[in-house]
């Protein structure tokens, strides 16, 4: 598929591929090749496309995560408002975990996406989702974040 610029973030979503290009989100249909603009990623952050287990997407717009369907249409179930602009986000249902400049922030995927926990880890380089936990790598160490059911928090 031909795209108008460098792809900074992307994820499969049904028959579509959601692309973060420049400061915009676009949906390309993998069957027809049709390219549709969704919306801007904001003024500060580069585009951030995060696939959800439901088949929907979480798209970053500065410090806000917006839920959209497979076609890029807004879902009215809410949004996630992070305390800062995330460099990356991984999902471990029912949580969204964001890598922020000064800490890792864990929020519920259920509306109103309440803050569940803040883990003070500076300079996290990467977050990786596994089947049972999330790995957070720093310059000289790796931490495992184990999920605890919301009711037991």
Automatic annotation (TrEMBL):
Say if the entry is tagged with keyword Transport: yes
Say yes or no: keyword Protein transport present. yes
Q: Which GO terms describe its cellular component?
A: cytoplasm; membrane
**Source species taxonomy:** Eukaryota, Viridiplantae, Streptophyta, Embryophyta, Tracheophyta
Which superkingdom?
Eukaryota
Q: Where is the CNH domain?
A: 1-134
One of the GO biological process terms: protein transport
Q: Where, subcellularly, is it found?
A: Cytoplasm
InterPro entries, per database record: CNH_dom, Vam6/VPS39/TRAP1
Main localisation: cytoplasm
Q: Which PROSITE patterns match?
A: CNH
Annotated keywords? Cytoplasm, Protein transport, Transport
Q: What is the protein name stated in its UniProt record? A: CNH domain-containing protein
């Amino acid at each position: 598929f031909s795209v108008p610029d460098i792809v900074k973030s992307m994820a499969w979503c049904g028959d579509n591929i959601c692309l973060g290009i420049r400061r915009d989100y676009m949906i390309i249909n993998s069957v027809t090749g049709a390219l549709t603009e969704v919306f801007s990623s904001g003024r500060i952050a580069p585009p951030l496309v995060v696939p959800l287990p439901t088949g929907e997407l979480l798209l970053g717009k500065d410090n806000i995560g917006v839920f959209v369907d497979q076609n890029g249409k807004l879902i009215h179930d809410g949004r996630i408002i992070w305390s800062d602009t995330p460099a990356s986000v991984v999902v471990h249902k029912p949580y969204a975990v964001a890598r922020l400049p000064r800490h890792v922030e864990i929020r519920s995927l259920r509306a109103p996406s309440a803050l569940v926990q803040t883990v003070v880890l500076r300079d996290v380089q990467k977050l990786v989702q596994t089947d049972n936990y999330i790995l957070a790598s720093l310059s000289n160490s790796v931490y495992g974040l184990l999920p605890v059911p919301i009711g037991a928090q």
